[in-house]
Amino acid sequence: MREADEQYFETLETELESAMDVAQRARQRGGDPKPEVEIPTARDMADRVENILGIDGVAERVRELEGQMSREEAALELVDDFVEGTVGDYDTREGKVEGAVRTAVALLTEGVVAAPIEGIDRVELLENDDGTEFINVYYAGPIRSAGGTAQALSVLVADYARALLGIDQYKAREEEIGRYAEEIDLYDKDTGLQYSPKEKETKFIAEHMPIMLDGEATGDEEVSGYRDLERVDSNSARGGMCLVLAEGIALKAPKIQRYTRNLDEVDWPWLQDLIDGTIGKDGEADSKDDGDQSDDASEDADGDDGGDEDSAEQAGPPRVDPAKKYLRDLIAGRPVFSHPSKSGGFRLRYGRARNHGFATAGVHPATMHLVDDFLATGTQIKTERPGKAAGVVPVDTIEGPTVRLANGDVRRIDDAEEALEVRNGVEKILDLGEYLVNYGEFVENNHPLAPASYTVEWWEQDFAAAGADVQAMRDSPTVDLADPSAEEALEWASEYDAPLHPKYTYLWHDVTVDQMGALADAIDEGQVAQTDGARETRPPDASRNGERGASGASRRGSDPRAADGDLVLPRTDDAQAALERLLVEHVQDEDRLVVPDWLPLVRTLGFDRSLEREWTIEDLSDRAKTYGEQEAADAIGYVDDELGDEAGRNAVLAVNEVSPFEIRERAPTRIGNRMGRPEKSERRDLSPAVHTLFPIGEAGGAQRSVADATKHADSMSETPGRVDVEVARRRCPDCGTETHEARCPECDAVAETVYVCPDCEMEVEPDESGRAECGRCETLASPTQYTELDVREIYRDALQSVGERETAFDTLKAVKGLTSEEKLPEPMEKGILRAKHDVSAFKDGTVRYDMTDLPVTAVRPAELDVDPDRLRHLGYETDIHGDPLTHADQLVELKVQDIVLSDGAAEHMLQTAAFVDDLLEQYYGLEPYYEFDDREELVGELVFGMAPHTSAATVGRVVGFTSAAVGYAHPYFHAAKRRNCFHPETKVWYEDEADDWHYGTIEELVESRLDDPETDDFGTLVEELDGDLAVPSLGDDGPCRRPVEAVSRHRAPDHLVRIEVGDRTLRVTPDHTMLRAGESGVKEVRASEIERGDALPAYDGGETTMTGAGATVPVADGAGVPTDAVTAVEYVESDVEFVYCLTVADTHRVAVEGTYVGQCDGDEDCVMLLMDGLLNFSKSYLPNKRGGQMDAPLVMSSRIDPSEIDDEAHNMDIMDRYPREFYEATRELADPAEVEDIMTIAEETLGTDREYTDFRHTHDTTDLAAGPDLSAYKTLGSMEEKMDAQLSLSRKLRAVVESDVAERIIEYHFLPDLIGNLRAFSRQEVRCLDCGESFRRMPLTGDCRECGGRVNLTVHEGSVTKYIDTAIRVADEFGARDYTKQRLKILETKIESVFENDHNKQSGIADFM
Amino acid sequence: MPLSTPARIVSELASRGYNAEREAVTKLADAPDPERALDRAVETMPDDALKLTAGHVEAVLDRAESRADATAGSQRAAEQENGETATRDPSVSTGTDSGVSPDAGGDVPHETKGSRDVDLSKRAIEVANDMTGNSTGTGEYSDFVSVFRDRYEKLASKLRGRVNHRPTDAIENMAGGSEAALIGMVSDIRSTASGHWLVELEDTNGTFPCLVMKDRPIADLVQQLLLDEVIAVDGTLADDSGILFVDSLHFPDVPRTHSPSTADRHVQAALISDVHVGSQEFMADAWHRFTDWLHTAEAEHVEYLLIAGDMVEGVGIYPDQDEELDIIDIYEQYEQFSEYLKEVPGDMEIRMIPGNHDAVRLAEPQPGFDEELRDIMTAHDATVHSNPALVTVEGVTVLMYHGVSLDEVIAELPDEEASYDDPHKAMYQLLKKRHVAPQYGGHTRLAPEDRDYLVIEEVPDVFHTGHVHKLGWGKYHNVLALNSGCWQAQTDFQKSVNIDPDAGFAPILDLDTLDMTVRKFA
User: Fold this and answer.
1) pLDDT in tens, A464-515
2) Beta carbons of A624 and A602 less than 8 angstroms apart
3) Contact, A778 vs A761, CB < 8 A?
4) Rg (chain A; Cα; Å)
5) Whether residue B230 sits in one domain with residue B179
6) What's the CATH number where B223 sits?
7) Which backbone phi and psi does A722 adopt, to 5 degrees?
8) Using 50, 70 and 90 to split pLDDT, how confident is the model at A290?
9) A358: confidence class by pLDDT, cuts 50, 70, 90
């Protein structure tokens, strides 16, 4: 570590320590549950392995071996230990084998999955037919989570142990071999295998396997032959065994072989045959990637060099195949920016801007404005490649969009201001501009490199390679390599025989040969405007003309529109289309096209300066004429009319044949994308927001107002302000005073919890583990009591104690009841001060703010709104070039734990700081800590950053502010993720990859897809999916279907919340986001906040279910969803090891067990002010013991160790320039790993001195927050408004096929809604308007069975017919397919048929409504 | 007898041993004096011709200088009128089909096999419970209430004879420990902590909890209960009169004594279902074999064809269905279906009901086709009744119901009572409950009408369903329950859930004996 880094961390830690001191002193004084700051610690991998296995001595041995060998080798090494008995306490031989096998699996899975415990049921010794003994390993389904390698190695380990113990090999019987084959085939059909071995292969393996693979039955399907075998218990498929044999042995044979070679005792010679594929294998096992590689495009990198005829057999240019997956499940209101790989869409440019890292995409701010502000910094987009989604970051050093204005001008807009000026006049967005993606993103997604745009950074290297002294030119004040004049560019191209400069390289690959010919013909007839602009003649002399051409750009716009020296062409459709597709800036009127700065264009087309040419279209080679056939139709099956025939759709070869210099493909890769989620920056409030974690029961009304509670009385005879609540039962150890508070009210000593048996009312002493069980009744003693609290007095005392009056705040809101185990109330004083400063408490007592995460590695003081001096104080002494930091516009490298707050976050932090100061002063009686006057003082302060659902906080330091609604921080600052989850038996509906619907447990769903999961330090496994798996979900405007982006498995907390809804139960982690229906719609709340009687939105059946529907509540915009009432809520002891979760695209909600619930949030971090966290956080407030401990800062890391963070960040490239070889490799669609050697990614600096520095970037950007502050998605009102904006944008974009957008909206949004609601109507529940009771069916009496009140429907005609007109309008206006129109039409008649009286017909649905 | 309708003309022609093209019949009907025109036409027919062609009739009419106006409109009007006559007044022994096999020289070769010698005059068909064109519900709460009340009343009347019903509010006031009986709609079924069954029954006054002890033999019957069916119980009231301990439980059921009616002559009907034209899996070859067979002598007595829904595959039935459609346009699907129907001998009487794939509302009862669809289905008059409908063929009542509720019955009831392999057993349950889709709020959807068309008021002789694509039949209390298979091969979806459909079967029912034979054409 460098000195500077050490210093930096020391600064942080010193600061942290001094804050800790203050907090410690404070905590000793106040009424907090513990008199000290509460922080626990973490453990290492060896520990985890030992703990999961429960075998003593493993951890020690693992640590010993860890340094010396790989984990696989260590696993084999441990076999010796087990056999010798030095590790583990096993007497039997089978026990030793079992211990060894389990340990091996645990080791290979880092002790984070259940496979070693649940995946291996037992090991047995059985007898062969010849009387010898053999080993039988009995696998179970959960072995899946171990992954193929560990599965395969478990067999090897078993065999090795077998050999060491001198047990014979397994000799399979004939029928057993047949059984294996049949069973694996059955399992593959039934459940699906990643790799399906051929029957021959399976038999081969079964014959040679030295141990027997067995397992428990996992499916209902039974084999038809080979039944009732003596040595096989079941006739059903044994899932665990099938996995081990197919995905383990068969698929990972080469890996096993590597280890068998090192072992003398074990010899599996037959593996070679398996590897060689000599036994009926296709050899297709590994080639399962997307097939992005087009067959013949790989060697085409120089195929278009000057049009050499040597490669005539190559059909087309190198291209990646269009992918349309990102378009799936398009939502109304979230626009498509570009269809897959379509010309006019974003142009892929390689590079990393400073605000770029992983899962980000650089877009020009002008583009953000021109797409009607739908894109803002931090807006998530779904993208065609390389990943699935990316956060948008503004980068203004790339090219902006090209537009055609209503007056015919075609201009490239490279400036956000200009974009805003012309926005209203834009008729067509011809091109969205460049799209910056860094190399690391391709590495992270393991996506083959896509052909690079020809950009300045590449050209410069070509130019240097051609012999130019680029360095000298760069240093020369008269030369701008990035922006040369036409003359310069032409001169360089001819003098050095280098490719033409990208500035004048037009998008020849986007025009057809015919269009190019038409343009050349137009130039033949073209003239150059004369001095007075009135007459146009042929140029008298070439050199003069060239000068004019070069300077023409500045003079356009006057009328007549051709300025002096501009090239005036007769207007033809083809010529115009060519210019527009080439992105040549020009103006046009009725019959002329006027091109300024035209010289490079005509020279490229083989004309000389006097507009003469010596070629005709017939002279072109056949290959050039037919080049580009493969681009015929794009991924959505749309054929671009403009391009006509399939052949000759790419004029780049043709132009190279006529051009005197080389023309490169300017933008061969276009990237399609659409909007995903909008950015987020908002305070985190509980729902409803609370100020104090103090229980007031129902007395506070719906508002939970403490003031109301002080006046509340159930009856006239009662004293107001007395409420019965369940609170802690404690006693002062010193004076014996009984209390419900943390501290003794008399002597201020910390009181102790008193456990009382609920049955015999005896006090019980808790044992060492903290468990208090009544010795007599054997029931668990309770630490709480029901007591009457005088809220009025407590409130008055609290006000007095902090010296505040009631007028200092609006309403003080408390909670109804406490969810923590001991139910210790928070001192109300804290709540009073929170209310005063308008901040609210999270369930753990902290104040939080959520922000979308974006990475940044270098910042300017100016854009952060801080003074450079201030930053110098924070250790930013030099800028990235090593110059002293003096100016606000110098660029400095961001330190790893420094973060940039959004304006909203800063504001909120200031409020929090004021609260903390008051708290210290007025409550704890200490000096204020922060004393901020303006927000600049926040700079340098420490905060806690937390990723959602983690239990660890990272200390961060504020360095500045941004107007974007995001939190910028160093990529390394982002911690591992852990999510809230469902109980494994939770049932969900899902549509699998084969589009079949299933209703199964979430465990099956997730486990069967954890093929190659990523793990984090908490034992979470996450597997990203391709989005082929869909679940029913609930969007802003009602039920919908959404793809699942990732599945994950997490260690279960000690407790789960069990929620009963009707006859269904739901078990989730206490923090899980649930949806609660209220009057104003559906709100997200934590599961721990759900109460009996709450209405939860019910899944009314979607496409396939049979569950009932209930009362309807609006989601938003009048869209409705039925609800079910919660009949019971309770905390239950978790009986499982893991819980499961899905990441659902866009809506982040999923229907489980007939109820819509939330899933977790994605990339939003939250920040807390350090002192707030230290002072106010207590585990005692967390729901039930360690139950609700996710999302709570249980651990705090004060410094980031780059080696321990998520790999994602390691794949970020840290270069300031990509080498020429890289660009060339992209044209070969190389695998990102192939260019690893010439690229530098962060991984390479891990563990070195430079691990915290040298994060170079290739592109700068002026402002981190350029572009709109908020996405239009957030500023537009209703869904219909958003959708209209979306559709009108789709008309403007050349890269978007509007009919497809309309089609998708109808298909994925309107139709499911219409169909769903119509279905819901005909099986709805009804509800009493008076008492709210709902009934599954209409009562025969017609009136409410409970109160006799009026009963009415919950799904009305209005919610069924809501979208039909809009849908039909959109279908007509935007040209949806006939199929879709017919579906709508039939649906309309179906709706009519239900709601219309045949004897009293309305003429149309419109009259009817 | 005046020959004013095509039907009469056909019947007259048949009686003289002639067959005729549809158009020929129309032209005759439209002639100023059909009787004379017919006489003349028959007289002038060539000796070797078996079929009266349109051209021939035209020649005859021309000669009589009475050119008929044979526009499509009047043709349809005539046909329709004819159909209605038959429906309204079936006792008149007339044929109902205006069309005889389309054309002797037609393009479909097998049709040249000529006509069948059938006596149309003996045919009789009558349809009840058809709500097509009479859907009066407008989706109001009160509509729903009337439907359920109607269901209760109709089914309760079947049970009144068996128990002495006391209204729920009256029972509440009865003395504890007294005997009581109740007819109610099942509104809830729960098992208690101790494993007994708590069945909440509802009548028009309120609800009352009834407890079925787990050790009583009738506990098994609780397993067969579906929500919203109507049953009767009798038993003893608890001491506080708060609950009824059930001693016996009754279903409306079909009387064991039911004796089915039969036809007076030897005549047969083909009962098929789930044709799914338009699907890539539609088995055209099997269909051709079936229709070919209908032209053979073996099938000469098959005079009726009943189709229990899912004539076409439909559009938008499930996501991305268009990728599996052979014909993407729904109207073309019906046109094609109509074409396939033309292969059926022209004299056959065809009756259909819609299914869940057809282009009508999915909520039951489903009305028959609207005008637009009827216009497309020109062949054989395409009479489509509502689902369900009660069709009486020469005295044999056939309850036609598509069968969406079977899914639910099979899912809810124990395997031995109902399974996909024995779909008829699920049908027994419906007969027992005297309702084709009792359970509300689940899989089957309900459209409220002025009454409950789904109640099985009259005991049918044959209960005919489809939907589950499985073939199964059996007798329940002398009622023949038949689930006909389908004409669609296994779909990818079915493959994935391992449903092996029974495709290409045509059950043939002897209407005089109610014996059934199943013919396989796949």
Assistant:
1) 999 888 888 888 888 888 899 999 999 999 889 899 999 999 999 888 888 8
2) no
3) no
4) 35
5) yes
6) 2.40.50.140
7) -100, 125
8) very low
9) confident
pLDDT tens figures, A16-68:
889 888 998 998 887 888 888 875 433 445 665 676 676 778 878 887 886 67
Are B73 and B176 within one domain?
no
Of A37-41, A94-98, A725-729, A1160-1164, the one with minimum mean pLDDT is: A1160-1164
How much is the average pLDDT of A750-776?
77
CB count in 10 Å sphere of residue A1297:
21
Query: Best residue in A1394, A1399, A1402 to probe B by mutation, most B CBs within 10 Å?
Result: A1394
Contact A1399 B362 (CB under 8 A): no
Listing DSSP states for A881-903 in one string gives TS-B--STT--EEPPTTEEEEEH
Residues B37, B94, single domain; the answer is yes
- Please tell me whether the peptide bond between A386 and the residue prior to it is cis, using omega within 30 degrees of 0: yes
Question: B99: domain range?
Answer: 6-107
Question: Structural domains in chain A?
Answer: 3-39+847-857+894-976+1181-1200 (no CATH), 45-276 (no CATH), 328-453+1213-1272 (no CATH), 505-663 (no CATH), 684-836 (no CATH), 987-1161 (2.170.16.10), 1298-1408 (no CATH)
C-alpha A901/C-alpha A25 separation (Å) is 29
Same domain, B490 and B410: yes
CB contact under 8 A, B318 and A1382: no
Structure tokens given for A152: 């395969």
Q: Which of B215, B216, B186 is nearest to B201 (CA)?
A: B186
Rama region for A1120: left / alpha / beta (φ>0; ψ in -120 to 50; rest): beta
Contacts A1325 to B, Cβ<8 Å: 441
Same domain, B377 and B457: yes
Say if B218 falls within a structural domain. Answer: yes
Beta-bridge mates of residue B516: B509
Burial A334-372 (b: 16+ CB within 10 A, else e): bbbbbbbbbbbbbbbbbbbbbbbbbbbbbbbbbbbbbbb
Residue B257 lies in a domain: no
Q: How far is A598 from chain B (nearest CA, A)?
A: 50
Mean predicted lDDT score pLDDT of chain A: 80
Q: Can you give the pTM of this predicted structure?
A: 0.68
| CATH number of the domain residue B500 falls in | 3.60.21.50
Map tokens 């037992």 to a residue: A122
Confidence of residue A692 (pLDDT cuts 50, 70, 90): very high
Mean per-residue pLDDT, B160-175: 90
pLDDT (0 to 100) of residue A124: 87
Q: CA-to-CA distance for B177 and A978, rounded, in angstroms?
A: 60
Q: What are phi and psi of A180, to 5 degrees?
A: -55, -45
Distance CA A378, CA A900 (A): 13
- The 3-state secondary structure of B461-513, one letter per residue: CEEEECCCCCCEEEEECCEEEEECCECECCCHHHHHCCCCCCECEEEEEECCC
Among residues B91, B107, B123, the one where a domain terminates is B107
Q: Does A1324 sit within 8 Å of B440, measured CB to CB? A: no
Query: Nearest residue of B to residue A1387 by CA position?
Result: B361
Residue B500 domain-assigned? yes
Phi (first) and psi of residue B162, to 5 degrees: -90, -30
- Domain membership of residue B488 (yes or no) is yes
Residues B447 and B478 reside in one and the same domain: yes
* Contact criterion met (CB below 8 Å) for A1089 and A1020: no
Please answer whether residues B26 and B98 qualify as being in contact, where contact means their C-beta atoms are separated by less than 8 angstroms. Answer: yes
Number of domain units in chain B: 3
CA distance A217 to A175: 18
Distance from CA of A607 to the nearest CA of B (A): 51
What is the mean predicted confidence (pLDDT) over A140-145?
74
Q: How close A1282 gets to chain B, by Cα (Å)?
A: 25
